[in-house]
Input
Amino acid sequence: MSDSRLFQPYSLGALTLANRIVLAPLTRNRAGAGFVPSDLAATYYSQRASAGLLISEASQISQQGQGYQDTPGIYTPAQIAGWRKVTDAVHAKGGHIFLQLWHVGRISHVDLQAGGAAPVAPSAIRAQGKTFVNNRFEEVSAPRALELRELPGIVNDFRNAAANAIAAGFDGVEIHGANGYLLDQFAKDGANQRTDAYGGSIENRARLMLEVAAAVVGEIGAKRTGIRISPVSPANGISCSEPQAQFDHIVDGLDALDLVYLHVVEGATGGPRDVAPFDYASLRKRFRNTYMANNGYDLELASKRLAEDKADLFAFGRPFIANPDLVERLQTGAPLAALDPKTLYGGGAQGYTDYPTLAEAGAVA
Ligand code: 8OZ
Output
């Protein structure tokens, strides 16, 4: 039996969400020239507007923050104008949408950086991992360690990007603190071997993520600021020797800032949920506002976790790609369509905006 509250309204900050199902952020690599979201993006997101909340694909806050080909930005007027079409289309359907703010740190490639420069990172440690660039997957480039004096500029880029997101009509932003990107690199000792105020202790490693969160909250308000973390995920070659203590501390700091939600990738991103022992209930207990759970959820697990009061909202990623009407399908027990892995990253409408709803599929059958 599914928990009917999944399909009932939920108050998130100043918003009333139609249900507790969230579109997780999904990278699709279809931005146009100048890293402006395409007109197809407006169609794609509005097709999924029946989710209680949509979270946009990760969007770089600066050129330096980009790590993959054709991902959208949120740092130029043209990008803001492109995103405005997306938010207008979603709002016209009664939906709500947050933008995910992204700096990839060391998960980048010299061909994406200004003047072919090295990507930046807490320490000059190259990740074991690949990025999608030059129309293929390539090893990430060796990074250089950020100077202490550069960090305020990065915090400022997040702050400006948050303001830009609001100017583009978003209902709020999600700070990407997960999956082995810049803020996660600072938080985890596998990537951070700094000896200044941003490395060496749990408090120091948490500092950049908390400074970014404070800056974004200062710019657009806590009710419009969420964050995503992935405490034990090995995504993008990241590792952490004491994730529980590290993330208990981070979540205490996020709670003090009164962020509207905490979005947690439980386990390995897109992989096993039981990759390492971790007490997620400890994070939930420390965070007074909304806990959004992600990774491998289906209707049964979401219902169970909601009934146990382990989470408030549930973010579905891959199932939303081939099922724009996922909420209706979950609610009615309809079968889910399978996605085409060949059209996940890059391309046009195929595998992006051409997956039919149940009603559309029935009409052609
Ligand atoms: C898949 C491909 C490229 C990027 C993440 C932004 O893992 C991503 C991403 C996912 O958070």
Q: What stands out?
A: The domain at 4-364 is CATH 3.20.20.70 (TIM Barrel).
